[in-house]
């Protein structure tokens, strides 16, 4: 099933002196069973856009269709409850939402809140804590006695325990060290791969994550959709990325710099989205240079 935005607009504080257009006429269609990454600078409308996907906010103009629902300005909040069972959202610093006395109790809250029995909620919570790498010995500890990284995993388990079909990740690794970042992104990818009907929408400033995980990328700029396509398509558009103050992944930039240094700029069109891609591309450039094609360093 697809997610479709039709002339989607969103105004903050409408009809006041502080009115601000956050989303401006977005028309886009993409699958809810793929990994979609939303890129853009701060203030581009990324978070506002994804908050529409589980009904946290409603359009002030246009419509959004997903999971069998069509959401407009007139949609009643109570009708969005079924959508929130299917679409989970992980915010920046989700550990700030912890509240219960015990880890297991906190993770059970979400399933209980959407209608699961206590036994079902417990089973879902235990599974989600396992997925997020939490040791059973911590289940009855206070979440506030845990490390920052463990607290974040507990909060994420609380979303995963509701077994959503679509998981929205709004900069979920903000503030983590590089190793914790890699571990958490791998965890999300494992969750996504575990069931065919699952999808992920990731908001990030990390170009390498966009390159490594995405099936499709959306680029927002000043509230408008300016680019949509595969990582290969998006990161080939230097002109659009520059206008949006975005840079391609470091591997792509390294290959381009090497090609220009070797006097082979026509070879820099090969996109290098992973370390292996980068190594292969630079090795190919070195081989071409060794063959005696024109070049002095």
UniProtKB/TrEMBL annotation:
It is an enzyme of class 7 (translocase). ATP-binding (A) component of a common energy-coupling factor (ECF) ABC-transporter complex. This is Energy-coupling factor transporter ATP-binding protein EcfA2. Residues 3-247 form the ABC transporter domain. One of its GO terms (molecular function) is cobalt ion transmembrane transporter activity. Belongs to the ABC transporter superfamily. Energy-coupling factor EcfA family. It is a peripheral membrane protein. Forms a stable energy-coupling factor (ECF) transporter complex composed of 2 membrane-embedded substrate-binding proteins (S component), 2 ATP-binding proteins (A component) and 2 transmembrane proteins (T component). The keyword Nucleotide-binding applies. SMART domains: AAA. Keywords: ATP-binding, Cell membrane, Membrane, Nucleotide-binding, Translocase, Transport. PANTHER family: ENERGY-COUPLING FACTOR TRANSPORTER ATP-BINDING PROTEIN ECFA2, HEAVY METAL TRANSPORTER. It comes from Salisediminibacterium beveridgei. InterPro entries: AAA+_ATPase, ABC_transporter-like_ATP-bd, ABC_transporter-like_CS, ABC_transpr_CbiO/EcfA_su, ECF_ABC_transporter_ATP-bd, EcfA2, P-loop_NTPase.
